[in-house]
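REVIEWER CHECKLIST
Item 1: Sequence provided? yes
Item 2: Single chain? yes
Item 3: Sequence as submitted:
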Amino acid sequence: MAHHNVDLKKLWRRTGLFILGLLVIGVGLAILVDQGKRHNLLPPETIDPIKALIVLMIGGAISYLLERYLFQLAARALGANRTTSLRFLIRLFLLLAVILSVLAAFGVGLSSVVFGGAFVTAIIGLAGQTMFGNLIAGIAILVFHPFEVGDRINFVAWQYPVLMPSFPHEALKPTYSGVVTDITLMYTSLATDTGPTMVIPNGIIIQAAVENMAHAKKRILRMRFDVDMAIDPAELLPRVEKLLNTLGFVGSTPRIIDVTPTTFALLLVVDTKLRSDDEVRHQIFGHLVPMIRHLAHPDSTESGKS
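Item 4: Structure as written out by the authors:
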């Protein structure tokens, strides 16, 4: 443990020295550019673009160092949730610092940015409406914590329509599901149940209906199963209830909820114990189908066994 802490301190110190060195290099390059301007070594019209390029290069290098080393160190020392907040704040600070530094390199002061012309402000506002909306939504996610990195969530948003599955007869909430892997300035990353990583703009997910399964103590699954009218419900229902209890779904009582001329609908309501819906369906239906087939054709089943 002590050796691990020593390694962390060395990495922290090394990363800090790298960042400090980059800042010194940036200041030195800016001084050289000013000296070149003073001695007419550089064309005047190239001074501001060169300074802006220096700011972008140094800012990008610092951002790379933070992503490559510092955030990984913070995750090991502080945990995933605190690191997400730290990463978000540092990214936001770097973004604002780089933007203001680039503007300053072009001779645009902070007062000019804040109190600029209404026309320019309107154009920038319209062009960056989505981007700034995602940025503000990311800040809201950071402040209010509807979910954190590592939480399993389900969300539904009108921007991402989902086709209803064909196997259930009852309506289901068309949700996307997965585990939150990262929350950045603009996007939230989700490791979906199907495998690929889904990247959702913060502006969309802040407006979505989100189920945070990390805070859930149970998850209820409703399943409807159509049964041939020739099967006696008085014989079927006790067997299904016994089957559910045997499978660990204690307290689940099957009910008849609908009738057609040829079938009646059986409703099963079970606690999934936070397992996936498909896994629970497979477990129950895998035992239920043979049972119903046996009740529907008892003679053929017995002859098949013999």
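Item 5: Key structural point noted by reviewer: The beta strands are 152-156, 176-183, 187-192, 197-201, 209-212, 220-228, 255-259, 263-271.
Item 6: Recommendation: ____
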